C-alpha cells in the first residue's frame, strides 16, 4: 500500500493525497493552525478510515451469515489527548444496522469479529484508545 501527499502551497496548510489505487483526497488544517478549513483534518481522515474499515467488515460478515441487511451506518465519537502527541484516547462507535429479521447475536458477533480480528484500523487505534461500541437494529 502506498500514498503520496503534496502540500498545496505556502499560503495555507492544505494537502492533496493520492492513494496507491489512484484516488485523490484533500486535507486542510484548522484556521488557528494556518489552514482555511476547506477539507477534513488528517486526524478526521483517520477516524473516517477506522469507521469505513469496521463498517465494511460488519456488512461483509452479515452478508456471509445470510442476514437480510439493507443498511449499515457507524457514527464515531472520539476524544484526544490534551498534550502532544494528541492521540485518540477514547472512541465510541454506534452501529445502526437496518434489515429484515436481523439476529442481534449475529450483529454483535460481526461487530466483535471486526473489532477483535479483521479491522486493521480499529485494532491499531485500539493500542492507544479505549474503543467501545453500541448497536441499534432497525427492522424494516
Automatic annotation (TrEMBL):
SUPFAM superfamilies: OsmC-like. It comes from the Bacteria. Signal peptide: none annotated. This is Putative redox protein. It comes from Polynucleobacter victoriensis. The lineage of its organism: Bacteria, Pseudomonadati, Pseudomonadota, Betaproteobacteria, Burkholderiales.
Amino acid at each position: 500500500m502506498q500514498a503520496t501527499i503534496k502540500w498545496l502551497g505556502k499560503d495555507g496548510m492544505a494537502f492533496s493525497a493520492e492513494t496507491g489505487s489512484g484516488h485523490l483526497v484533500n486535507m486542510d488544517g484548522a484556521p488557528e493552525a494556518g489552514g482555511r478549513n476547506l477539507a477534513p483534518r488528517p486526524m478526521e481522515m483517520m477516524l473516517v478510515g477506522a469507521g469505513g474499515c469496521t463498517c465494511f467488515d460488519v456488512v461483509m460478515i452479515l452478508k456471509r451469515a445470510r442476514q437480510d441487511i439493507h443498511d449499515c451506518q457507524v457514527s464515531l465519537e472520539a476524544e484526544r489527548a490534551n498534550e502532544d502527541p494528541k492521540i485518540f484516547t477514547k472512541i465510541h462507535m454506534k452501529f445502526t444496522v437496518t434489515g429484515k429479521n436481523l439476529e442481534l447475536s449475529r450483529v454483535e458477533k460481526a461487530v466483535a469479529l471486526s473489532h477483535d480480528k479483521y479491522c486493521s484500523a480499529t485494532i491499531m487505534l485500539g493500542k492507544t484508545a479505549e474503543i467501545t461500541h453500541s448497536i441499534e437494529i432497525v427492522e424494516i
